[in-house]
Amino acid sequence: MDSEILKKYYQAGSSIKSLSINFKLSVDSVKQAVFDEKYNCRKTLRNAVKRGLVVKESCKICGELKTEAHHNDYSKPLDVIWLCRRHHHLIHRGGKNRFNRDGLVDPGQDRLF
User: Fold this and answer.
1) Is 81 inside any structural domain?
2) Are 85 and 68 in contact (CB under 8 A)?
3) Average pLDDT of each block of 10 consecutive residues along the chain (113 residues)?
4) Across-strand partners of 81?
5) Which of 18, 62, 83, 107 is the right S-S partner for 88, CB 3.0 to 4.6 Å?
6) Distance in angstroms (rounded) separating the CA atoms of residues 85 and 62
7) Phi then psi dihedrals of residue 61, to 5 deg
8) 89 inside domain
């Protein structure tokens, strides 16, 4: 199945589940086609964590132990900043990346945290 066709249907409002049923593909296959780089990046990181190649860290901002990975660049799947759910959502709601190259909060941006 051509991933461009699935992407067009998804962008037009079709759900992942409906595409899966209509094209007789697994949900995983549809996600991979529609979100290709983002999906593959997350999958690569998840596998690296399972194998012990990458170790989850505490939240870069508040120190919370339960964290999620934030990717600045999906072409670098193992280059992540570990954030708690609250701070991860704040980063995405902020509309721009609030970290510098070293993974630290940019000056003047910490007021959101």
Assistant:
1) yes
2) yes
3) 83 90 91 84 94 94 93 90 90 63 53 47
4) 70
5) 83
6) 11
7) -100, -50
8) yes
Q: What is the pLDDT of residue 66?
A: 96
The verdict on residue 15 lying in a domain is: no
Single pTM value for the model = 0.62
What are the residues whose beta carbons fall under 8 Å from the beta carbon of 94, sequence distance 6 or more? 109, 112
CB of 35 closer than 8 Å to CB of 18: no
Distance CA 81, CA 66 (A): 13
The per-residue DSSP string of 21-46 comes to HHTT--HHHHHHHHSHHHHHHHHHHH
Domain span at residue 105 reads 55-112
Instruction: Give the per-residue pLDDT at 73.
Output: 87
Tokens linked to 84 = 């708690």
